[in-house]
Amino acid sequence: MSEQERAARRERLEALRGDGIDPYPARVGPRTPIAEVRRLHDDKDEESLAQEAPEAAVAGRILAQRSFGKLAFLELLEDGTRLQVSVRKAEAPPEVFAFAKRLDVGDFVRVAGVVWRTKKGELTLDARAIDLLAKSLRPLPEKWHGLQDVEARYRQRHLDLLVNEEARAIAITRSRVVTAVRSFLDRRGFLEVETPVLQNLYGGAAARPFVTHHNALDRDFYLRISDELFLKRLVVAGFDRVYEIGRNFRNEGISRKHSPEFTMLECYQAYADYRDMMDLTQEMLVEVAKTVLGGSAVPFGEQRIDLSGEWPRLPMCEAIREETGVDVLAAPDLESLREAARAAGLAPGDAPTWATLVDDLFSDHVEPKLVQPTFLTDHPAELSPLAKRKPEDPRLVERFEVYMAGFEIGNAFSELNDPDDQRARFEEQHAAAAQGDEEAHPMDEDYLRALEQGLPPTGGLGIGIDRLAMVIGDAPNLRETILFPHLRGGGEG
Q1: Residue 343 contacts by C-beta under 8 Å, 6 or more apart in sequence?
Q2: What are the tens digits of pLDDT across the range 448-476?
């Protein structure tokens, strides 16, 4: 925006004040939502509107102006719905016609007048009165091009959401996804709860935390990386079905499918296992798609994801072996697994632990191919310190991840409720941290005490809301689903 244009708007602001017009009045006055005006009159033709001459008053932001001497048009926007306003010198009071010329694109106004239809068929409100509701001192992006630079779009998100209909549609879809998830769980007897965001000790996932300082208590706290351990404490406390939809924070990189601040659904059901949670997950995601999109076919870029039918259940180790030729269970330590990877023609990289290398092999060679909904099951125990072991093969755990569109949407376990096994897993994680694994799970004595009190057999599930909204909303990037994503650097775009 040029300084000249900004100065001109400031001059118009001061001129209005000089004429006794409050550019930011406290009251709006009676009005009808633009969407309601359109609902009432969109199906009426020019002749019927001329005979009826319905009156209306609306409010909105001016998106565009056009002037043709004795005729001017304004385009108003209110809550995503647009309406054209005409200001005709022959019909409007002289002071109204003159005042319309003092308005700028971006201003908020209230317009009262008569609804009619132009010869081009456009439903229009013919102004008889115009009141300024709020003066805009900065212009909007040019109507047809908007904000083209991606960084500028995210830095000025309020403008992007205003002029970019695709961005607005994704935001609305995300909200409807959350509403549909909440409705699904509420109807199945789950209780929505809230657990601490500031935690004495982080846990519940493999991630690095953010650290902050509590001045009153004079001690460091962690922003939660997961709400899992507190939700399971509630199951110990006798709340058999609980869920939370809230923000988690992981001090990690930013990518197409990662954000350090993200929204997660976690739910826990007593007397259930991971097979029950698979059924729950499929039912929930199918219902979300049908509620938001009207069906179980989800367009995503050039792909079409079909949520109907039974979703495949693919054991993780078998999937890695089929895609790479590496049998990870036959190479039970880091060096032997590195050798097996090299023998298969793969570069094992510098993974610090056996579990990390297994995860790398899966992420690089299997994950991108899981486009249609798939349950990846039965992970090695080293990857899942909070999941229950499979009775028939204790090297594995009763865990699944749900994949679609080539990335993980959710993660679930038969929750580990043996406090002695849990302590041993935490000790293994402590050893992994000593070997350089910065995402290893810390020892949590307080949680172990809760387990010793007794946790019933429990199934747990976590769903990444941002990623789910990315798929349901056909968004190319996770940041498109977040209203105000984090960016490198600062200042305006």
Answers
A1: none
A2: 999 999 999 999 999 999 999 999 999 99
**26 and 166 together in one domain:** no
* Secondary structure in 3-state letters for 68-135: CCCEEEEEEEECCEEEEEEEECCCCCHHHHHHHCCCCCCCEEEEEEEEEECCCCCEEEEEEEEEEEEC
* Residue 28 DSSP one-character state: -
Whether 207 has a pLDDT exceeding 90, the answer reads no
357 SS3 class: helix
Is 365 among the domain residues?
no
Integer-rounded Cα Rg, in Å, for the chain is 29
How much is the average pLDDT of 245-270?
93
Q: For 325-375, write each residue's pLDDT tens digit.
A: 999 999 999 999 999 999 999 999 898 889 999 999 999 999 999 999 999
Domain boundary among the residues 114, 134, 154 is at 134
From residue 472, how far is each of 102, 139, 259, 281, 445 by CA, in Å?
Answer: 44, 33, 18, 15, 40
Q: Are residues 126 and 245 in the same domain?
A: no
Which domain covers residue 120, as residue numbers?
A: 3-134
